[in-house]
Design a protein that fits this description.
The chain is built from 19 helices and no strands. The chain is mainly alpha-helical and 417 residues long. It is globular and about 55 Å long.
């Protein structure tokens, strides 16, 4: 797999201004605020489940659909929205999605019934899928190859910052003023981000039409299919274990609820650092970065099993876990951008769909493992799935090296107009 394709990447420079990258860093920062807004919106109900259930007179399990539904809708909408948007300027599409996110949060804030809230959350899912499908690959379009990894890392940093700051702040506001005000604040934030995107982004005309036939053609491309398989295994493995990390930590002697919250905050802060470290590694070699991440992620999760009796070891391993997982998104996205340089948006759409499916599948798998066998089984299954990504990455690298250099940037069949 070619680690970059400088000719293909630079053909978009006149459209996006890559000749003056310093002026485009505000555009990249605006995209980071967009990912921060969608991830905070997606995960906020986790911290508000009790008050949501009480306010809408439903059980905690029913209120939990406000978390599950957006992920499922995002997985389905990510590959469909670029097709539906057709030839629209991608700056316009992103602004429209953030305005839709603002409307969905406003509807959540005034929802009189759980059905209305779930309708709003389904709209949130459309926004999540659409924003990731378009924004995830823009780092390579806005910046030249030597800065694309750092730009992609900044865009993806919105995920970790949302976990460290966005969701806790929203949860605190919900506890202080009520859950409706938390959603109202997110509505205001999304509207402000839409304005920032309109001001900071350059025009982003469609590079190539995305057709439904593009996706099966991409899936038949070995580096792309192997990269998506690695993504699915890493994300599913991570969320299999991490969704149930609190009961795992509760086994450790001397850990109370306050200490666990502090450790998880450290995990989130390490994730921010890991995102930028992953971008730095991906700038040099996405395949090598993913090999390191997959090996480290699986190993760290598995090591938490024998570390159950040690507070120090468990704390250190969880922080390393956050650092390693922080690089997953940016490294896999850089891999796919390099593997399909002439179908970046379609590749990003598949990536977003696989990523969100992995989140839902991981939470489901972890739940079944925890119910049947306990927290230790969750760690074993999650770590094992992460390590299974290693053969896919190795095989994709070998297949990529066998491709002739003169055809490495050829368009994927089915992507042409």
């Amino acid at each position: 797999m070619p680690s970059s394709n400088s000719t293909t990447s630079m053909t978009t420079a006149p459209q996006t201004g890559t000749g003056r990258p310093a002026r485009l860093w505000p555009a990249v920062l605006a995209l980071a605020t967009a990912t921060f807004a969608v991830v905070t919106t997606e995960m906020l109900p986790v911290g508000l489940l009790t008050s949501l259930g009480t306010g809408l007179r439903v059980s905690a399990g029913t209120a939990g659909l406000a978390v599950t539904l957006p992920g499922l809708v995002a997985a389905a909408s990510a590959p469909l929205l670029p097709v539906a948007a057709r030839r629209a300027d991608r700056r316009t599409v992103l602004c429209a999605l953030l305005l839709l996110l603002a409307a969905a949060n406003a509807l959540s804030a005034v929802a009189p019934h759980i059905a209305v809230l779930l309708l709003a959350r389904a709209l949130v899912g459309v926004c999540i899928g659409g924003v990731w499908a378009i924004a995830a690959g823009l780092g390579t379009r806005l910046m030249p190859p030597d800065r694309a990894g750092r730009a992609t890392a900044l865009i993806f940093s919105g995920i970790a910052v949302a976990s460290v700051l966005g969701v806790p702040a929203g949860t605190y506001l919900g506890a202080l003023a009520g859950w409706r005000w938390a959603f109202a604040a997110l509505a205001a934030l999304a509207a402000a981000v839409a304005a920032a995107l309109a001001l900071a982004l350059p025009p982003l005309p469609l590079e190539r039409p995305v057709r439904l036939g593009t996706f099966p053609a991409l899936l038949r491309t070995p580096p792309v299919s192997r990269g998506l398989l690695a993504t699915a295994l890493l994300v599913t493995g991570h969320f299999t274990a991490y969704t149930y990390v609190r009961p795992v930590l509760e086994r450790v002697p001397g850990l109370d609820a306050g200490t666990i919250s502090t450790i998880l905050l450290g995990y989130g802060a390490a994730g921010v650092a890991g995102t930028f470290a992953g971008g730095w590694l991906a700038d040099r070699d996405p395949r090598r970065a993913l090999l390191v991440i997959a090996a480290a992620l699986g190993t760290v999760v598995l090591l938490l099993v024998p570390a159950a009796d040690s507070l120090v070891a468990s704390t250190l391993l969880l922080v390393v876990w956050g650092l390693v997982y922080g690089g997953v998104s940016v490294s896999t996205q850089s891999w796919l951008s390099a593997a399909a340089p002439r179908a970046r948006e379609a590749g990003s759409a598949l990536f977003a769909g696989v990523f969100n499916t992995g989140i839902a599948l991981g939470a489901f798998t972890g739940g079944r493992a925890a119910d049947a066998l306990g927290p230790t089984a969750v760690l074993c299954v999650g770590g094992g799935l992460a390590l299974l990504a290693l053969p896919a990455i190795v095989r994709a690298g070998r297949q990529g090296e066998e491709r002739r250099p003169e055809t490495a940037g050829d368009p994927v069949p089915g992507e042409q107009a």
